[in-house]
Design goal:
Elements lengths: L2 H13 L7 H15 L18 H13 L3 E5 L3 H16 L4 E5 L4 H9 L3 E5 L3 E2 L4 E2 L4 H8 L6 E5 L6 E2 L2 H10 L3 E5 L22 E5 L11 E5 L2 H12 L9 H14 L2 H22 L5 E2 L10 E2 L3 E5 L7 H10 L6 E2 L3 E5 L4 H18 L22 H6 L2 E4 L13 E2 L6 E3 L7 H12 L11 H4 L1 E4 L8
Helix pairs in contact: 1-2, 4-5, 4-8, 6-7, 10-12
């Protein structure tokens, strides 16, 4: 691109007008920009974007398979949301009918959306909630075995690690699934460093029949980079069929593959390995330092009991005794241009990455100052335990596709929900489409909202806007 063309392009973009006389040179400048960012499949040097060929993308896919211990990898030119949608369709294609799935209510919305699109018959496995810690346990092998013994299923879909970084023995979970002849699907969006770095738990992708991993959540590649990993040939074939239908971008950003490859190469360089060794130690030092601040308590895997591991990059604190909500602390950190991954009324979660290895003392100082200087103290009120799961009235996909209407929250009691609503605590869906809206659930959600908690799946305020229900429904089975 010439300097003149660059100046012309800048002026044209700023003014919104492109003079006809300047158009040929400007067009070449635009072409130069896009050519430097993207390539099309007409470039014969590039193989299949998902890594199914033997070129550059294929070599990257083989490297990803080695890292995570899976038989086959598919590179995704987008985040794991579309990957989850395609996995659900792969399961249906493999079976030739709607699948019967045992799923966590904490699954990402994309997984739940995939189950709706595949018309899956879904039953839920409830994770144990520990009110004294404000944390949900990960699903354990024993819990999964008990749930699978109560019904007939084709697959179990679990989140490992959880959003807060905890997980149980994935190899034992996979063995339970094999004994019951069900597929083990793992949403491992937050487990990208497991398998890549030492001192981390093994990756679930090494033992699951299929797993989705969001590489970008841990800084591997650009935003949107993810991979699908398989140890089951049937699911792999179904997945390839589903992605051919468009459940993978048909206009992929090819430079994203380069960024993924270069980032993985860095982790395997001398500097990357040194950082990988230091990261868990620095995260532990950070946790110890923050716990010395009055009111903070670090939640480690031992707090959850035997057999529970934690991804070291997830550092979770209970904040009740600070006199501040997690939201207040998160906001105060943001004013200092410091990011905290997630806040609740009672907790604060940090994702500890390479940039924190040297900078975490600054974060500790900021937290000390926030607690010491806080003028408005949050007076905690005792919240009731999360309500029991509401009764199922309609199938998930039928409720989602049925005619809907919006009702005030209290008027919706006794109706059938047409939407997902989740909250912390407990961190999972308190309502899913097809379930009866009970007074206990509404009371709990409104109480959380009044305390300052943020409800997931609700646009605006539940107290003001109500929620979506199945039209003409009043606890009608079907």
């Amino acid at each position: 691109m010439t300097r003149l063309a660059a100046i012309q392009l800048e002026q044209a973009l700023k003014s919104g007008n492109i003079d006809a006389a300047d158009w040929p040179e400007t067009a070449r400048a635009l072409a130069g920009i896009f050519a430097s960012l993207d390539y099309s499949m007409s470039n014969g040097k590039l193989d299949d974007i998902q890594g199914r060929g033997d070129g550059a993308f294929g070599r990257t896919a083989r490297g990803v398979e080695k890292i995570y211990g899976a038989s086959t990898a598919r590179l995704m030119p987008h985040g794991s949301s579309l990957t989850n949608l395609a996995l659900a369709q792969a399961l249906r294609l493999t079976l030739g009918r709607p699948p019967r799935v045992l799923a966590e209510r904490t699954l990402h919305l994309s997984s739940l959306g995939g189950l709706i699109l595949s018309e899956a018959d879904v039953n839920w496995i409830d994770r144990e909630y520990l009110p004294h810690l404000g944390v949900q346990m990960p699903v354990t092998p024993q819990q999964l075995n008990e749930a699978l013994e109560k019904g007939e299923y084709d697959a179990a879909w679990l989140t490992v690690p959880t959003y807060t970084g905890f997980l149980a023995d994935c190899a034992a979970i996979a063995e339970v699934c094999r004994r019951h002849n069900v597929k083990f699907l793992a949403d491992s969006a937050w487990g990208a460093l497991q398998g890549l770095l030492p001192d981390y738990p093994p990756s679930p992708a090494g033992v699951a029949d299929a797993a989705a991993v969001s590489l970008h959540k841990s800084g591997i590649g650009l935003s949107g980079a993810s991979v699908a990993l398989f140890n089951d040939e049937e699911l792999l074939r179904g997945y390839d069929e589903a992605t051919v239908l468009g459940l993978v971008s048909t206009s992929p950003p090819y430079y994203a593959g380069l960024a993924m490859e270069k980032t993985l190469e860095w982790w395997y360089s001398e500097q990357g390995r040194l950082t990988g060794n230091r990261l868990p130690k620095a995260a532990k030092a950070f946790a110890t330092a923050v716990e010395s601040i009055p009111g903070f308590s670090y939640i480690d895997p031992e707090s959850l009991g035997a057999g529970i591991e934690q991804n070291p990059s997830h550092v979770l604190f209970r904040t009740v005794q600070t006199g501040l909500t997690g939201y207040q602390i998160q906001s105060a950190l943001a004013d200092r241009e410091i990011d905290a991954e997630m806040a609740t009324l009672d907790s604060l979660l940090f994702l500890f990455g390479p940039n924190h290895v040297a900078t975490w003392p600054r974060l500790v100082t900021a937290l000390q100052e926030i607690v010491a200087r806080a003028e408005k103290r949050f007076v905690k009120r005792e919240l009731p335990s999360p309500p029991q799961r509401p009764p199922k009235v309609m199938d998930l996909h039928k409720a989602f596709y049925a005619p809907h209407r919006q009702l005030p929250a209290t008027d919706a009691i006794g109706k059938v929900s047409a939407q997902f609503i989740a909250a912390y605590p407990p961190g999972s869906a308190l309502l899913v489409p097809g379930e009866e809206i009970t007074a206990d659930v509404i009371d709990y959600l409104l109480r959380l909202e009044s305390e300052g908690s943020r409800l997931k799946g609700v646009i605006g305020k539940l107290a003001e806007n109500g929620l979506r229900t199945v039209a003409n429904s009043n606890n009608q089975k079907g």
